[in-house]
């Protein structure tokens, strides 16, 4: 039997699935479920709207698939480590309170070794969503630089909202003249340029969701950078100039 790929546009976890059992779990008894099967991964990705940030393979096919799997749409620390990419960028945004003082952070790894930390974009009247979007935007800018040189990049973000904004929802918003049924598109000033940037590099960049504060080092470091931006009121997005002492950095205030 030929292998099929199942696109779930509306379900418990939208995305692409490699077996019917996993797809059914997302759409069974889900009101307004929208899904369809395709004969190839390429057709499924095109139908979904480009590269999917939460590509999933079932347990039954895990040994046959070279694609990194997700657990409930989110990568574990082990799966993050297994992703094949020369550059791995972790993003996070913090806001204290929400809305309130916001900042963004990045942790950049080369060949799975911490290489750079970035922090800034302090906004005294920001939100958690704007901070997360700003962090992902900076990751896209970094990714654009590296992919131009033929270097593979993977981005890991703990904000489903940010990922879905630029990889899923913005596809239809753009087609509809940046309008959506039922109201305004919040944070459009960020989402529009992010979507345009993503469209130019989406075939060369992987974007994955990870859960925050579950022991994924890169995510934890990006979190500390976002709060450092708040504490130091760093408006520019700046390279962290102190020694990359991971233990000491993780001891900083968390978001």
TrEMBL record:
Q: Which domain of life is it from?
A: Bacteria
PROSITE patterns assigned to the protein according to its UniProt record, in alphabetical order: RNASE_H_1 (PS50879)
Q: Required cofactors, per record? A: Mg(2+)
The UniProt keywords, alphabetically, are: Endonuclease, Hydrolase, Magnesium, Metal-binding, Nuclease
Pfam families, alphabetically? Cauli_VI, RNase_H
- Under which main EC class is this enzyme filed? hydrolase
* E.C. designation(s): 3.1.26.4
Q: Per its UniProt record, what InterPro entries does this chain match?
A: Ribosomal_bL9/RNase_H1_N, RNase_H, RNase_H1_euk, RNase_H1_N, RNase_H1_N_sf, RNaseH-like_sf, RNaseH_domain, RNaseH_sf
Q: Which reaction does it catalyse?
A: Endonucleolytic cleavage to 5'-phosphomonoester
Q: Where is the RNase H type-1 domain?
A: 83-231
Give the residue range of the signal peptide: none
Q: Which family does it belong to?
A: Belongs to the RNase H family.
Can you state the subunit structure given in the record?
A: Monomer.
Q: What is this protein called?
A: ribonuclease H
Q: Which organism is it from?
A: Photobacterium angustum
